[in-house]
Amino acid sequence: MQDQGKGQKRQEMKMQNRKLLELSGVRNVESFDSEEFLLETELGFLTVRGQNLHMKHLSLEQGQVAIEGLIHSLAYLDGSPQTKSKSLFGKLFK
């Protein structure tokens, strides 16, 4: 975790048997369905993918979310690699 001058950013994850995921540091739930959740967190956007996913608990005031279902993957969506490749392609095609 990195402090970027805006206060200490913190996120905790706890997963039990790939069937229950508890997260802290959640700012907003952007979208969700039974196969994917897109969450805005203190550390960036996070996708949770799986099967039969549903929200067990949500408290945005406390920044906590609990997701149940069969969890396949967790991934942060960092724009930096895409931005670099776009700028490289942008330079090539000028």
Describe the fold and architecture.
With 94 residues, the chain is mostly beta strands. The protein has one helix spanning 80-92, and strands at residues 13-16, 20-23, 26-32, 36-41, 44-59, 64-77. It has one domain (13-92): Immunoglobulin-like, CATH 2.60.40. It is 14% helix and 54% strand. The chain has a six-stranded antiparallel sheet, with no helix packed on it. Strand 4 and strand 5 (44-59) form a beta hairpin. Mean pLDDT is 84; it is low at 1-5 and 80-86.
Question: Which descriptors would you attach to this protein?
Answer:
mainly beta, Immunoglobulin-like, 6-stranded antiparallel β-sheet, 1 helix, globular, Spore_YabP, YabP_sf, Spore_YabP/YqfC
Write the element-wise H/E pattern from the N-terminal end onward: EEEEEEH
Task: State the separation between the terminal residues, measured CA to CA.
Answer: 38 Å
User: Given the C-alpha coordinates, what overall shape results?
Assistant: globular
Please tally the helical runs, counting DSSP H or I stretches of 4 or more residues: 1
CATH topology: Immunoglobulin-like
Rg, nearest Å:
16 Å
CATH first level: which class?
Mainly Beta
Instruction: Kindly report the spatial arrangement of strands forming the biggest sheet.
Output: 1-2-6-5-4-3
Strand-pairing-aware structural class? mainly beta
Q: What is the number of independent domains?
A: 1
Helix content: 10-25%
**Unreliably modeled segments:** 1-5, 80-86
CATH architecture: Sandwich
Largest sheet: 6 strands, antiparallel
Averaging pLDDT over every residue, what do you get? Answer: 84
Q: Please indicate the percent range of residues in DSSP E strands (runs of 2 or more).
A: over 45%
Could you tell me the number of beta strands?
Answer: 6
